[in-house]
Amino acid sequence: MSTGLTLRHTADGTPYVRPYLGTNRRTGRQIRPYKSFPGRTDAEAMELARAWLAEVERFADLGTSALVGDLLDRYVAGLEDEQYSANTIKTYENCARMASAIRGKAFGDVRVRDVEEMYHALCRPKSRGGAGLSASTVRVLHQFLRKAFAWMCTTIGADANPVREASVPRGGGHPAVALEAEGYATLCDLLDRTLRTDATTFRERFRRETAMAAFLALNTGMRCGEACALRRCDVRGAMRPPTLVVGGTVVEARGKVFRQEHTKGRRIRTLAVVPEVLGAIRAHVAWHRSLWGQTSDKRPVVATGPNDFLRPSEVSGEFRALCDEAGIPAEVTFHSLRHTHATWALLNGEAPQVVAARLGHSSPKITLDTYAHLLPASDADLAQRFAEQQRLVREDYGQE
Hints:
It is a single chain. This protein has helices at about 40-60, 70-80, 85-100, 100-105, 110-125, 135-155, 160-165, 180-195, 200-220, 225-230, 275-290, 310-325, 335-345, 350-360, 365-370, 380-395; strands at about 10, 15, 35, 235, 245, 250-255, 255-260, 270. The protein is mostly helical. A hairpin with a 2-residue loop joins strand 6 (about 250-255) and strand 7 (about 255-260).
């Protein structure tokens, strides 16, 4: 392929090459990498161009250019072919877009400092020109890039992986926010009223469906996508106690909305509920029947049409609008309902392993790491014993 290499010149006389290397298998666009050689003679430029092209042609064999952006997209496409979950693919696609600072660079031009500068810019507050992302979000990006660049190195036989050597920002993510007693009471009253409205317009119906999704999350610890995925057949009212089966989640990917037949943790969870919660679900299903008649048991509990699954992002947005109207603090999100359920269970003495199983965490450690800052100090007895020892010592030495 290098035999057809043609040296051209820009208006100021700088030599450059832009060979045609086929088409990108993912996008269908032509692969036409560009490389200029400022300050070089034509003979020097041609020699450098041949060495550069030998590197670039290895990527053309993959049906992509040597640009990091195209390579990242090719890597994610390969994972999709391997049938990774839709949520994982969506996360990786977001990571590939997040790496915009290096997407336009050729693979061989990326240095450790480029990766580290990108991380710092992403973590820098928006007030200082950064993206304002949390350190934990950037660490997710780092793990994705490590795997993607390792794949690139293995595929073309390269040794240097700049991401592997890059330092990762320290610090945690945004702390879990749970409702306090007053906010909890306000929210419960809000959900109660919303679930009893006539809801004649589409907006009113959507608001009522949002209230049911929030009711489920608050009373079971479900994620938003899990609440949207709950079907009538997943409600086991005849069991004692009544239970809900959480075995799927609603996914939004590339403009489509569908039920994925497993949860984030790939575990089916059976959650006990009290009769009052079961009664509210049955009342909601009865309201649906009054609108659409008898439909399949595989129909979602939360929906604005006979068989439609709602978008979790839209449900979360509508929930925030409800909270704004009720005066609930802005830091409370739909996910705060899950945090509230978990925190209150731990505060009331429930064992971490039981709470972890209910939430679908892979281990109690994740549960404690997430909610430890919301729990009261566990060393109250120690503080009391220390104070008592201090008092006795002072008495012995007459310093009371």
